[in-house]
């Protein structure tokens, strides 16, 4: 079996952590049991570009139980958990091409490795796999049945491809499922981002000015958790509706140039480029800590920070100190890459349970419906979304009401009024 990982001897620790995560993924466990009986993905090749974490491992195992040949590579050079990669190779015979800290060249070599397996279905997190497939393997891309995309950033890229008419197969935007973005993005990103900042810095968040750039679902989650830790939270936005919502939710709202002057912690979570720029870093306080929770490492202009600095050193693991000419110091976490996976472990398993249940069921859906789907980006079918929500409620011991026949009739009529 071909693979490229850091160290196979880490496998036992990885297997233990995969099993620990699996205990908190009851929805995916139910789907895995169904897949093992029905084998809906028999002889289907799936290439996936995802964060190689314990939760991703459980998705890969589920897909394999369903009959698929699964090939994994990392969707971020710093997000791989090397022990998990080793366990997948040694104990589950799933080929993995990922090493934490790999350089850009190796990252793309690994993408090419899983593409050359000629997948029938692709799973992506950020759209690097799909875009590389279209740019470098155009004819092969035309043979792909379909794919799934996990992130807001990736969905934006793929919708642009569809709009330009260059997308060669249908995409299910798993990110847009309610059971994904309302929970994974808000509760998962919120908790794991704060966790990552605390692990990296060991600084007290209570009493600080905590700046969150972007008030989408991820931004909302980070802002809520920072406020829960006792911070004064400041939101920066370009969308007037989201900015208004942030203000009505009780947060301070101001332009980044103003927030930069008073912020202690900064987190970018917009999916856009150059959100924190030279003009902002010029006015930051001595000791400002900046990080990124967006998928790509473009939200902080690290190149500008480099050019402004007279010296640079790693003062803690995953924390680089940049000293400016006037003596101020700015601290960058995880090189400006996805902080919650670079300096922590990513989202809790109970949240990823729903996200990866969507991935597994969407893979089955694509296999069954790809011939009738156009080369476009689709939401997860509502019946899949609702089933996952219902299974999650049942796993939590929560029961809900059902409509009576009278209520069903009322909702479907127009004659009844006051």
Task: Please tell me about this protein's structure.
The chain is of the alpha/beta class. It has 2 domains: 8-180 and 347-395, Rossmann fold (3-Layer(aba) Sandwich), CATH 3.40.50.1480; 186-342, Rossmann fold (3-Layer(aba) Sandwich), CATH 3.40.50. Helix content is 46%, strand content 16%. The protein has helices at residues 11-22, 26-38, 54-65, 82-92, 104-115, 128-136, 138-141, 152-163, 178-201, 217-228, 240-248, 256-262, 278-281, 302-308, 339-342, 349-369, 382-395, 405-411, and strands at residues 45-50, 69-74, 96-97, 121-124, 146-149, 171-173, 209-213, 232-236, 252-253, 265-268, 288-292, 309-316, 319-324, 329-333, 377-379. The chain has an 8-stranded mixed sheet, sandwiched between helices. A 7-stranded parallel sheet has the order 3-2-1-4-5-6-15, sandwiched between helices. Helix 4 (82-92) links the parallel strand 2 (69-74) and strand 3. Helix 2 (26-38) packs parallel to helix 3.
The number of helical runs is 18
CATH topology of the largest domain: Rossmann fold
The total number of structural domains is 2
- How large, in whole angstroms, is the Cα Rg? 22 Å
Oligomer: single chain
**Low-confidence runs of at least 5 consecutive residues:** none
Shape: globular
Measured distance between first and last alpha carbons: 70 Å
CATH class of the largest domain: Alpha Beta
